[in-house]
Amino acid sequence: MQSTVQWLGNVAFEAKSDSGHTVIMDGAPSYGGENRGARPMELILMGLGGCASFDIVTILKKARQDVTDVQCRLQADRAETVPAVFTKIHLHFVVTGRAVKEKQVAKAVELSAEKYCSASKMLSDGGVEITHDFEVVEAE
């Protein structure tokens, strides 16, 4: 896996992935940014949510659950000193579907957290306390 990050001026950067996608990153105005994109640490948090959500959807589909929507709401705390690393992250999954079994969702969350999510594993091995919970919503 490769990526290229190109400086755009001030504290803005364009990242290009080897799959051909681009993301703009920018700093806060207080650091000379123009708010043209997400902050790099926000992208790490979003990546964690995407990685875990990918697992949840894949596992639930394999379990033949009729899932119509999955949302992952993340809340993170950071150290107050530099480097301001993540210290705690909580992932809350909202799984919507028809007759989705709570037991299957619990198993999917557990498998993602303990076995499949590379981002979660990397962050937790780096000392970040990661917790999870979920709710199941019946689709209308």
TrEMBL record:
Transmembrane segments: none annotated. It holds the Pfam family OsmC. SUPFAM superfamilies: OsmC-like. Coiled coil: none annotated. InterPro entries: KH_dom-like_a/b (IPR015946), OsmC/Ohr_fam (IPR003718), OsmC/Ohrsf (IPR036102). NCBIfam families: PRK10738.1 (NF008009). This is OsmC family protein. The lineage of its organism: Bacteria, Pseudomonadati, Pseudomonadota, Gammaproteobacteria, Moraxellales.
